[in-house]
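Its record is set out here:
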Amino acid sequence: MKDWELWWKNPENVTLTQFMAKDNVPFHSVIFPASLMGTGDNWTLVNTLDGIDWLQYEGTKFSKSRGTGVFGDQAVQTGIPCDIFRCYLLLNRPETSDTNFTWDSLA
């Protein structure tokens, strides 16, 4: 068994939990698992899928392609300890409605 198969083709020993934004839930809960099952191989399928609302950036949608938001490499460059970002994101996780990240609310 190859290294990646220890995870992706080992459902008896792997519990797969995924966290994703609400727009990805239909694909990852229905289409992707159905595609895997259709191959007849013994794939690890998602056990728990936690769909959350959107975390917006300063009132607009995060977009890596448009450079809108703050991303891991940029967060490091701010000099703010990563635990501050982690705590902020845990406290403001968009569970029941969209949440807006602002630098003012982080401060």
Remarks:
- The CA atoms of residues 9 and 43 lie 4 Å apart.
